[in-house]
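Annotators were shown the component list below and the corresponding predicted structure, then asked to write short factual statements about the assembly.
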Amino acid sequence: MVPSLERAFDRFFGPRANPWRHLGALAFFLFWIVAATGVYVYAFFDPSVAGAHRSLERLAREQWWLGGVMRSLHRYASDAFVAVALLHLAREALAGHFRGFRWFSWTTGVILLWFIYGSGVVGYWLVWDRVGQFSATATAEWFDAFGLGSAPMVRNFLSRPDVTDRLFSLFVFLHIGVPLALLAVMWVHIERIAHTDTVPSRALGWGTLAMLVAASLLRPVASDAPAAFGSLPQTLRLDWFYLFAHPLMYATSAEVLWLIAGGATLALLALPLLARRRAAAAQVRLARCTGCARCAHDCPYLAISMVPRSDGRAFLKQAVVRPEQCAACGICAGSCPTAVPGAKGEVAPGIDLPGLALEAIRAQAAQFAAQGREIVFACRHAPSGRQGSDGALIELECAGQLPPSFADYAIRRGAPSVVIAGCALNGCEYRLGNRWTDARIAGTREPHLNPSVARERLRTLWAGGKMRAPRAARVAVQVAAFAVFGALVAWLSFEPPYRTLPAGEALVRVIVVHAGERLQPCRKRSPAELAALAPNMRAPEACPRGRAPVEVDVQLGGRVLVREVLAPTGVAADGTAQLYRRLAVPAGRHALQVRIRDSLRPGARAWERTETVEIAAGQVLTIDFRAGDGGIFLL
Ligand code: HEM
Ligand code: SF4
Ligand code: SF4
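Structure shown to annotators:
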């Protein structure tokens, strides 16, 4: 399906502007838009709890024509970035591009997804509206599934005094730091790719920018209401590109979400292991290598280095292949100046594929030419490319594997004409094969086709949309495609609304972070005991380790909300006991009973609080136990 979609787009966009063929470049382009607009918005942003929301609203109100558009662009470009990265992933996966030498791009691509989400989600927290507060709280609850740390992370978000300007500095640090790390991983992602396609064509770039500006003007981004602690809106307009995981977590659990996220990541990372055996890498025939470096310049995967000569011949350099990076595409053989049939016909290039040597290809060509047949040199990855010809077929690994001298050779040996067939332009299985072939034939890249070859006897047939649609149809389809994509981005960025709680329900949060009583009391050390200790160990009291568990019992309207015995954390069982629960309850007037006990001694004191509470639908009641501050608080 993807190839036919790509071909259909070729008709209307042309291969250079076909978005399906340049998703990686589009992702880079969107990243730069996000970065540039982010710098602008940050210049007006007040990174404090009280000022964050206000400063963004002021920017959108007072400068709707620039600040407002910048802010909307920042969001929509970020959304489009996720969409394009996921489409890029799907396209590469469907093409099987996780196998063999591509494992590196694939694995770094999977890692990129975590950085993309890490960068984007924190951006919502900075706005500190109801959506940002919901997202920060849900993310903290997600990380709390591991029970790490001396207190649940969510405690930082439960009441107004918990959210401090220092916490905001951390948000800012993360929202700048993680995208910078993302950029570094993007750079690593393309590190093993030569002549990388990181800049989209003008038509594609301008079209994308125009689409984002149109979305920003037609549906400017506005914040939700400022964050508030006593209530949760019944519905929230979430950005589904970035925040879909929160509803998924509340529909399942934090543990299930970890299983889904971790499982999907591991499954994607494991895909390269399913690879079939790899084709043998290209091999250098040193006796024929002149050290010209053309193969190194043409290799699409930077698999060839030029190193000092080792055989004493009068050349400075020689080519060396890094087998683990080699795609076995043969493009290097096609670029080698020594890949020319000799006086006796045979060919022995300086670099060649052991699995499909140029000599075998030449021998077939000689045979078909002697029969006076048209010869089709065809890439084996593009069966549709050769459909325009019924000549004698000679399969290549890539069209770029064919040295142009072979066309000359076949014609001189009697072939009436020669066809070179391969993948669509900008859709080459090995990225550059058809581009180099066109350039070699046009004489703009070495090795040139011999100019004496009659051009009407040599054709290239590249798969893909060969017929370009009429201009009016092209413009109409391009505008429609951008409009559909832009509308989808702007829609999913807010719709459909997410229902946070069932109608008529309220939310109760229970948080307990408390160290139970010591199982044995501390005792004062005698002077003799102290003297026997090393000077740095002379603590006046000896406290045997181990603490009592903490019992928590919360009932609302006669229904047990929490009844648990919490074990102390820590290897020596002397850390705090921790509990955090988030429960939907029916709204209304209820009798609330909270009882917390932290001792095993019979008759020891427990903390209790009993009262009638009135909770409206959508209200949030937080039951927070802070022994040091006086006991059980209702927030
Ligand atoms: C931030 C997001 C990403 C960006 C900016 C990005 C960018 C790029 C670029 C520019 C290329 C080179 C294209 C070319 O010149 O032919 C590329 C190749 C590739 N990408 Fe990504 N990518 C991203 C995410 C991903 C993801 C999520 C995956 C999959 C897990 C992935 C898998 C690949 C693979 C396998 C290739 C190699 C294609 C080939 O060898 O022909 N990328 N990427
Ligand atoms: S076969 Fe392809 S990937 Fe391998 S060295 Fe030659 S050009 Fe590079
Ligand atoms: S193109 Fe051929 S001659 Fe030139 S460096 Fe590569 S192997 Fe050697």
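Statements collected:
1. The chain has three domains: 19-223+234-274, 283-462, 501-634.
2. The mean pLDDT is 92.
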